[in-house]
Every structure is written in structure tokens, then in C-alpha cells.
Amino acid sequence: MSLSFKTAVGNVVEGALTYPFVKLAQLKFTLQATKDCPDLAAAQEQAVTELFELIKKHDMAPFYEAICASGLWPKPLDATLLAQLKESNTAALARFDAELETAKESAGPSEVQAANQKIAEYKAFIGAPDAAAALETVLESTVGAGPRLDNVLLLARFAFSLADNALIGKYIDRAKKLIDAGGDWDRRNRLKVYEGTYLMSIRDFTRASELFLSALPTFTSTELLQYDTFISYSILMCLFTLDREMLKSKILDSPEVLEVAIKVAPFLNLAESFYNCEYRAFFTHLAEVEALLKKDLFLFPHYKYYVREMRIRAYAQYLEPYKSVKLQSMADTFGVSPTFIDEELSRFISAGRIHCAIDAVSATIATRRPDNRNSHYRSIVQEGDLLLNRIQKLARVTDL
């Protein structure tokens, strides 16, 4: 039987708040990543060890059977272990069913609800195929804004374990409606972390950074993310979106960040080197962080985009105070070759991301300040054309 239920049979919330849904998803992702990249054999071995411990600890027979069938599990299925896990699951569910029947016969609605909650949570914990349906059924009969919100957040964590962004977004929206209808301070702050993590996973880094910053001083969502993981994500999102002054005050001087500085060193080093304009070190730390992002469940789909955009930010920050600078000088500052800088800048210049020009004859980079007035003018003209087109379409409709 699951450890959560062994130690907290009478306390449904404790089991829900300590079960490692996101860790399971991260370990599964690591197995997938290492399968595609054989060079990460050590990471695969570690993930298998941790996942196997969780499977045995929580008696996860359905999950174990499914991951073996998926082809991600590098070892053959242990039939003896699977039989033991299934036997434990059957015994636990039988006991919970007996509690439910007793509650229906001799107790009130709250006891019946609690019994149904145990069954639904247990199914989620072991990875039963009908877990989502069971949790939804329990949610429908849950009374009170607080308990309903707890169950929606539980469903969101279950969706995180499936790495299903559409489902996560659905439950986040439901939770926000419940919060708007009346939610306490703690649940409101926990939801910020949930929503920020979801937004980060769909590449809305700006809104994610706002939510992470808001939750930074009062983080309590340890059921979703470990504290140092949350701080790492906060640094990455804020480094991507904040200007240097805000980055210094909100991140680099933040007591919450400094408290775990050693644990988040790669990310903090990246932010500090960017703020201090130490571009050679910045490139080194960016390569280290890129390697970590490749292994991250939420940021793997975006690591190329993130690294590219941070290089653009660094180039733009370096060029900003200059009217012109030698190509060799910029290459030396970043610790790369002039050829690399030439090719890199040429690509970003042609895409309109960096405002400068390269003089190949003199090997000089001349900066060009963006013409904001003309840019605003073009924007107004385009919006005006769209408005006129809509008015014309409306006029044709009304004439009919």
C-alpha cells in the first residue's frame, strides 16, 4: 500500500500535497531524453533508480506496467514485482471501498466524500487509467471553495505528470475562476506558481516572470516544485524579461535567491555575468545552462529559443554604448572568433533583431539606433488600414 496512505490514512490532504507528480514527469522525460541521446547514460541510470524507488514506495503497478510497455524502461518487466504491486493495490482499494460502504450506511455526506477522495487520490498515485475520471467525479461533489480549489490543483498536478499542456491550462483556468469567486491568501499564492510554471512551459516567459516574482517572497508550492527549482526558474524568466536595474533589485539582491545561491549557482552565475557585462563568462555560463535546459521537462522545447534570445540580449547590451566597434574587439570580449561574431551578427541583423551594420573592409561594426518615430508611424498606418477594412465590411453588411 502507498506510503502516503500508510502514514496518513485519515488525512487526505497530506498525501495529495506530498506526492511527487512533477518529479515523476521529470524522471519519465529524462528516460526519453537519454533514449534519444545515448551519451547521457549516467543520467538514465540515475532516473531509473529514482523512478524504481518511487514505483515500489507507492505500489504503482499500473504506472510500472505502462512505462515498461512504452519502451522507455531499459530493463525487462519484473513479473514477480508487478504481481506484488497489483496485490497491494487490490488490497488497498478493497479497504477503501469498505470504508466507503461503511460511510454510506452509518455516516454523513462528508465521510462519504472523504472516502471517495481517498479512492480517487490513490488511483492517481498508482497511475490507474481511470484516475482522472475518478478525480473529476470527486471534484463535482466537493463542497466549499477551498476544498474545490484543492482538488482542482490536484488535477493540475496530475496533468503536469502527464505533461499535457492543454489539460494543465484547463485546470489552471478553473482554479483562477474559483480564486476569483473567493480564495484564501495561501491558495492564491500557490496558484501563481502553478500558472507561472504552465506559462513557462508554453513560452510565455514575460507573464511567467511576473507571477514568479510575485510568489518569490511567499513560496509555499512545494507540492509542485522544490524551492531551489522554483528559484532557478525565476532567475531564468527574469533574466529573459527584466532590464538590468530590475534584475539587480529583484533577483541578484533578493534574499530568497541568495539563500539558495549555491544550489542555483549555474543560473545565478549567468545572471550576474550578464548584469556585470562579463560577456566571456556569460557565454561560458550560457553553455552550462543550455546543457541543463536540455534535461528539463518544461524548458527542453524552448532551450534553443532561450539561448538564442539571450545571445541577442547580450550582443545588444554590448553594442548599445558604442557608435562603432572593431569586430576583433567584440570577438575578444565574448571569447569567440571574429568569424563567429560576423556570421552570428549578420544573421540577427538580417532578421531585424540587432540594429547595426558590419563594414567588412574595415572590420568594424557600426550601431544604428532604431527609428522609433517611423516605426510608430508604420504601426499607426497598418492599424488604420485594418480599421478601415472592418468599417467597409460592416457598411456592406448594413447595406444588405
UniProtKB/TrEMBL annotation:
GO CC, sorted alphabetically, is:
proteasome complex
Q: Write out the GO biological process terms.
A: proteasome-mediated ubiquitin-dependent protein catabolic process
Keywords for this entry? Proteasome
Query: What are the residue boundaries of the PCI domain, all occurrences included?
Result: 204-372
PROSITE patterns membership = PCI
Listed InterPro entries:
PCI_dom, Rpn7/CSN1, Rpn7_N, RPN7_PSMD6_C, WH_DNA-bd_sf
One Pfam family cited in the UniProt record for this chain: RPN7_PSMD6_C
Q: What is the name listed in the Swiss-Prot or TrEMBL entry for this protein?
A: PCI domain-containing protein
Could you tell me which species this protein originates from? Fonticula alba
| Taxonomic lineage from the root | Eukaryota, Rotosphaerida, Fonticulaceae, Fonticula
